[in-house]
Design brief:
By secondary structure, the protein is of the alpha/beta class. It folds into 2 domains: about 160 residues, Aspartate Aminotransferase, domain 1 (Alpha-Beta Complex); about 230 residues, Type I PLP-dependent aspartate aminotransferase-like (Major domain) (Aspartate Aminotransferase, domain 2, 3-Layer(aba) Sandwich), CATH 3.40.640.10. About 40% of the residues lie in helices and about 15% in strands. It is built from 16 helices and 14 strands. The chain has a 7-stranded mixed β-sheet with strand order 4-10-9-8-7-5-6, with helices on both faces. It has a 4-stranded mixed β-sheet with strand order 1-2-3-13. α9 links the parallel β7 and β8. The longest helix is centred in the last third of the chain and has 23 residues. The chain is globular. The two termini are about 30 Å apart. The model has no long low-confidence stretch (mean pLDDT about 95).
């Protein structure tokens, strides 16, 4: 048992006795964090910092998988939640906050004419798919990106255990920036594609007007276009990627940054489609839970009131610029590069002749954690990140990139590793 992570590892051993993988979230589990060099359990967080159960402090660039946009324990969100707690959490009738939050989403999001709430991004994407199927009277779905754990999507991935073949066969994956891959789905299922659902962007920028091409293809085939903005919503712009790129889908889904970490998601879109939810069953006992709705309203008001996105773009831009220069200065471009937008960017690690990207990533995580930076290879920027945070992150990269370079080019990775490397796993993107 490692001294630095002694309590984390002991808690992991305990958790594994009662929780599969020891975590409720796959991306936070031991599958993603190499044993012996990683923290596994958090104790508290504030602003841009998080502390593990061993008391180690980290500069956090995971931000609960992009769910936190304003920063941990944001005072405005906390105040709204505390005030609502005095009034109650869940009721026997709908609460007025449901309407207020829906109206605020309509005000901010281009496609939003009507809104329904869930709890997780998976709730929202599954609801959007069900609406699209009801609207088009079709069954098949074309998907690009990651869309949650529900059968309709996960059955088309390597994590399809427990999903009936009849369900798996209805979802078809296409490749971002490759319209031909989408066209093949339309050609293979003429007149039977209910929806094209996609993350409007993750690692790669849309090329050759890709998003508008997809929209045109969907319209030509009588297919609903759904943007999964679970991450890009309220992060790329106040109105999401659809505002940033100037394209309005038929439906969109939101979660994560919608309430700065509180559990709420939303399906939003054209009234003629959304009204089908009077017949399509999409219902949650806790769909109108008011603490999360109060957090959501406070978050969106702050996004409108303060330069949140602008600040995140500036901070994230400095990260991308500095990291790019660091990679170039260390002549590491043959296996390291950057991707994404400043508000949600990526260190892209490629396979090399000697090592898989997973082995290189293991060393990367080991060295970043050791230096007090919590990351999974992304920069999920929050409003709480400061210029000094960026300076510290780049200082750490200046130390870690040369280690990666030496390990890869001189085939010394095993000498650096203090743990077993991560195994190739299901990749969400």
């Amino acid at each position: 048992m490692s001294e630095r992570y002694q309590k984390s590892e002991a808690m992991l051993e305990r958790a594994l006795c009662s929780i599969p993988l020891g975590s409720q979230t796959f991306s936070k589990s031991k599958t993603q964090l190499p044993y012996g060099v990683s923290p596994y359990f958090a104790q508290k967080a504030r602003g841009s910092r998080i502390w593990d159960v061993d008391g180690n402090e980290y500069l956090d660039f995971i931000n609960s998988l992009c769910a936190v946009t304003l920063g941990y324990n944001d005072p405005d969100v906390n105040a709204a939640v505390k005030a609502q707690l005095e009034e109650g959490v869940i009721f026997s009738l709908p609460h007025t906050l449901e309407t207020l939050v829906a109206e605020k989403i309509k005000e901010m999001v281009p496609c939003a004419e009507m809104v329904r709430f869930g709890k997780n991004g998976s709730d929202a994407t599954a609801g959007a798919i069900r609406v699209a199927r009801a609207y088009t009277h079709r069954d098949h779905v074309a998907a690009c990106g990651y869309h949650g754990w529900q059968d309709w999507y996960i059955g088309a991935t390597a994590r399809n255990a427990g999903v009936p073949e009849s369900t798996r066969s209805l979802t078809h994956l296409f490749t971002y920036n490759d319209p031909d891959s989408l066209q093949r789905i339309f050609d293979g299922h003429p007149g039977d594609v209910a929806a094209v659902i996609m993350e409007p962007m993750n690692v790669a920028e849309p090329q050759n007007d890709f998003l508008h091409v997809v929209q045109d293809m969907a319209r030509k085939n009588g297919t609903a276009l759904i943007f999964d903005e679970t991450i890009t919503g309220f992060r790329y712009a106040n109105g999401g990627a659809q505002e940033l790129f100037g394209i309005t889908p038929d439906l969109a889904t939101f979660g994560k940054g919608l309430a700065n970490g509180y559990p709420v998601s939303a399906v939003a879109g054209k009234s003629e489609m959304m009204r089908l939810m009077e017949e399509v069953f999409f219902s949650f006992t806790f769909g109108g839970e008011t603490l999360s709705l109060a957090a959501s309203l406070a978050t969106m008001k702050k996004l409108q009131r303060e330069p949140v996105i602008e600040t995140m773009r500036t901070i994230g831009g400095k990260i991308l610029d500095g990291l790019g220069k660091c990679i170039q200065a260390n002549d590491a471009g043959h296996f390291l590069s950057t991707g994404g937008k400043p508000v949600w960017s990526f260190l892209v690690i490629k396979d090399t002749p000697a090592y898989s990207s997973w082995k290189i990533k293991t060393l990367f995580l080991q060295e970043m954690f050791k230096r007090g930076v919590l990351t999974i290879g992304t920069h999920n920027v929050s409003y709480a990140h400061s210029r000094s945070d960026v300076e510290r992150l780049l200082e750490v990269y200046q130390e870690v990139v040369p280690i990666l370079k030496d390990a890869v080019d001189n085939r010394r990775l095993e000498q650096y590793l203090e743990c077993k490397p991560l195994e190739p796993l299901f990749k969400v993107r």
